[in-house]
TrEMBL record:
This is Glycerol-3-phosphate acyltransferase. One of its GO terms (molecular function) is acyl-phosphate glycerol-3-phosphate acyltransferase activity. GO terms for biological process: phospholipid biosynthetic process. The gene is plsY. Catalyzes the transfer of an acyl group from acyl-phosphate (acyl-PO(4)) to glycerol-3-phosphate (G3P) to form lysophosphatidic acid (LPA). This enzyme utilizes acyl-phosphate as fatty acyl donor, but not acyl-CoA or acyl-ACP. It comes from Caulobacter zeae. Its EC number is 2.3.1.275. Pfam families: G3P_acyltransf (PF02660). It is found in: Cell membrane.
Amino acid sequence: MESLAPVAYLTLAIAVIGGYLLGSIPFGLIATRLGGAGDIRKIGSGNIGATNVLRSGRKDLAAITLLGDGGKGAVAVGLAHLLSHGNPLVVALAGGAAFAGHIFPVWLKFNGGKGVATFYGVLLAAAWPVGLLAAATWLAMAALFRISSLAALTAAALAAPFALATDRPYPILGLCLFMAVLIYIRHKDNIARLLKGEEPKIGNKKTAEAPPPEA
């Protein structure tokens, strides 16, 4: 495990708190409201992520959400890298904090998104080979099955093996495992629908459904 001795605790606190606050910015909710699409929490699954924004029929807002949710994770990691001179433990903690901020944003009563875009943003900034492999996994699974959740779950499950295969530091391996566990927890309803063969495919427009209580 990377030692914290050369890193000031103030720097660590700034990286973690700053990462969480960056991660908690709800780009999907902001984009749909400013874009005139209403409250994304009342559309489709009720989730604030890019996949559900796409169900509103607004590809432009979905793209903005995707870039925003991924970008905030990358920015959090990048700033932590600069503050700590590349200390892997601080970078991993900041990335994990940004990811947790997206899923549990204080501004939305700790009820946020499922974390997939932020997962990729964090990985690409913290360990780009792992991020690229995870992104390639998502693309391959999405092309084969056209089910976003299945692609995300597969990529999340393989992130830690990718980190081992590319000889990433242990804090990055821990970050991959932490994000994968939360992604699986947040996708529990998707997993249930996958097992029943009822999970909607990419591009389906679902505007009439009320959001589930846990969305």
